[in-house]
What does this fold into?
Amino acid sequence: MSGTSVMRRPFSDRGVLVWGHVAPREAEAIRSACEEQLLQHLGAVCLWPEEERNRSWRDGDTAFYVLEFHPEPEIGVYVQFLSEAGMGGAIFEVSSDAWNPPADKFVDAGKRKLLREHGFEIGGEAGNFRKVIGIANADDVRVAAREAMAIFTDVMGYDGRQKLRYELTLKAQVVVPRVLQHISPDALARSLNEWGFMAELKRQDGQPPRVESLIDHGQLVVLFGDETREGSGDYQALTLRASGRAEDNEARERADQLNRALADIKFTVDDDGNIVVEQQVPMHGGVTFDQLRAQCHLLRRMINEIARHVEPRGRPLTEQESKEFARRRLEAALAGDTCETLDVKYEEYQITHGRPLELWRSHDGTDDMFEACSRVGAPVEKLLLKFRGRYKRWLGRPCTQL
It folds into this structure.
């Protein structure tokens, strides 16, 4: 098997695996004509690659595959495979005459004996011949495919003169997420603790309740607003607010740049010089627990990224440094020494900003804005739509520092 294609769920397909021929065909010729496609189909149904968990499949998903031909009009003979995520294999079934008595001559006593020799026994609601087989890799899929074709050709008498049809179905377990229209402070505090935040509910007379959580490099606070009715204790609007130490003396400028770029997250700098990240969460239209958890983790990650980029803050030049840089700039200009001019520029920048100057920058201000976004770990999808493509390219830009 060259490889099993990954199909997104839900998915279904019907078609012809082997087209009918006028003259009978040898079993080997029939197998060779359909084996590659059959391997792809069975791999999609019976294999559950761990790397695709929660991507192309989830726990509870199921799949089945049916191969059928009609030796006579209105009489169908089939094999089928049924598999479920985590099963490690499949239920392999061969049709009996339990639900289609005219098929008894195609599943007579001799054929039943052959099926039992293959390990099949009558079972299941349909009264089919069935057995459970282990399928863990491509080699197992090939064994199952060849056994299925051997049952058709050697047991059921299929000789290629009828169409061999298939039906493939990949089912997804439907999980309806709980949608919140409002939430109480106690319920949110419990949820935050379940999500890995050490949260505490704070109440003060005459003040709306708030939930506070210390995070790695700062604090997360949830404020409540728009009570459903007075005294109900349920609120329809949340404000998520995280704060942490700003990374340098350009914090206010960087906050402005972030506000230009991001769609629904606002940045400010408080009186202590800390960056404050704030997001409004209206619940009138419905919010799931997963969405709420993702927003809280995003704000925590942003504060962590800000802390990760904490650098020595820049400082103004001393009077002696200013005179020395002015002297060097003048001498470099008179001598036409561009290298010395750049050296002066970079050294001065590093003192005043506390970090090296990047050599690669544009002049329209977007570099500074995108740098601010990257420093807080802002996902591309959080930027305003007009900036997303440029931000992706910026993240992959060639960049050199002094």
About this structure: The longest strand covers residues 62-72.
